[in-house]
Prior knowledge:
The complex is a heterodimer of chains A (339) and B (279).
Chain A: H1 2-17, H2 19-46, H3 52-58, H4 64-73, H5 80-92, H6 100-104, H7 111-146, H8 151-164, H9 168-182, H10 202-232, H11 235-242, H12 247-285, H13 290-299, H14 303-331, H15 333-337
Chain B: H1 11-33, H2 64-70, H3 72-100, H4 104-115, H5 120-131, H6 135-162, H7 165-172, H8 177-185, H9 190-213, H10 225-231, H11 241-267
Helix pairs in contact in B: 1-2, 1-3, 1-11, 3-4, 3-6, 3-9, 4-6, 5-6, 6-9, 7-8, 9-10, 9-11, 10-11
Amino acid sequence: MTEVAAPRAAARAARRRRPLLRFVVRRLAAAVATLFVVSILIFAGTEVLPGDAASAVLGRTATPEQLAEMQELMGLDRPAHERYLDWLGGVLTGDLGNSAAGYAAGGETPIWDDIAPRVGNSLVLAGVTALLMVPLALVLGVLAAVRAGRTVDHAISVGSLAIISLPEFIIGSLLILLFFSWLDVLPPVSLVPPGESALSRPEALVLPVLTLLGASLAASIRMVRAGMLEALNAEYVTMARLNGFRERVVVARYALRNALAPSVQVFAQNIQYLVGGIVVTEYLFSYPGLGKELVDAVAIRDVREVQSVALLVAGVYVLLNIVADVLVVLLVPKLRTQS
Amino acid sequence: MSGRLRFARTPTGAVGLALLVVLVGVALLGPLFAPHPPDEPVGVPLTGPAEGAPFGTDFLGRDVLSRALWGGRSVLALAGLATLLAYAGGILVGLVAGYSRSLLDPLLMRAADVMLSFPAILFLLVLVTGAGTSKTVLVVGVALVQMPLVARIIRAATLEQSVRGFVEAAVARGESTAAILRREILPNILGPIMADAGLRFTYAIILVASVNFLGLGLQPPAADWALIISENRNGLTLNPYVILLPAALIGLLTIAVNLVGDSIARTLGISTARRRLVR
């Protein structure tokens, strides 16, 4: 007994010494529980009308015999809880199932084969946007805060409030009108040939990235400005000024450093937002990514593919949330000892 | 000017309100001024501005101006209905969760957390896959997405009010819970409700328009600003106005609503910069 208990006690002591590890473990456990509930919601939401997936494949002209045969082939004749466990087990072991489009074509096409090349394209689009968003938001947010109440601040604040209100497809449509119809320098659709990286087609990336950047950048700027204003009004900043430090030093070393932690959370939130915004943006530019694939799957009611892609996207979303929380705890020492 | 309209004296509030009045006017009264029916061809498809069609024709040869004048009603109606529904559900859930002091509170709030743990557009796509494309699905879906956010705010405000003296006095008088919620608590949490309404309505418009744009909401031949942009995407080289006009109308509408909402929140003394961006 003691041989077993001793390492356990040691592990418990180690956890107590490392609150950050405990925090991460707890957040991961909560995330697994959340995703489990989300998977049930996704499954229940998409299978409100049972058997419909088979008729969606065959069309309206199918005979009852054909329908029954297709239902058996797609596994739709089994009870819902069995199908759910089958799907979940498959997702956990890396088998996302076969797409309905494949059945419609007369064969079995694994969903993963359909989406694998598109995952990379979506990551490139979101990644480039995120890489541009963070420095731009910091520079413009700090600029607006330092010049609070002046023309630059008003321009940045009103501009970001306007852009934040616009749906992605409006920003994108206006960009297409400007850069394609009027200036004729960029393509209105972003075609990336299969097997090629989106990075090798920079001209195809510019407008989708600008579209995604619009809303997320505007939101980030507003929050960086608010955090920076708060820091600039703090007593330690007044103290630094009274000590005779130059304004640039006060802003960079005192205010900005303290405004950074809340900003990290803001950036994470907006990178999370990219996960949702990418769906509409990819559809607008016919960009071959996961979002476009999802919309196409919904349009032809490919239930299994929608379920798998939706769970995948939800997983990324939840994971980003944890990464953000951990980063904030790392940046704010005070939070490490609390909770 | 009365306290209620104080926001209109701020520059952004005044500009927003003026814009909003114009756009709601266009959306509601537009059909009365449309020179042509919205669903009948009047000329060659995708021609530019011409006599009788000041903004040209769309991909089926219908008058762009007439369709744009008809296309605002659905945007306002669907988004407005979804927002009202989200508030009806959110206020109920928020009041119950904030006042119950039982297991109901954590249960309802965890449910809200789960709803907010994935992107709104993903939720709507999943719903459309299961329940099909219809106005009801669109309105209920957008309302469900917004409900948890409303509920959270209402719950926090209710918790704050529920320990106040006048609530305790009402409890001591033996008033029913429903009466306390309606007469004592609800009137005192109208501030946070008002402050957030503009933002909720903006996102409702964005979500409704986005789903319509994806072709998974209203179906042709409906005249709807988002749908017009979606179905004419390939024709923008021939007639850019077919995209420009509805895009400008949606854009100005969402900007106007958000400007008004933002200045209402500001005059109520609530900072608007840090509110969560949810789509």
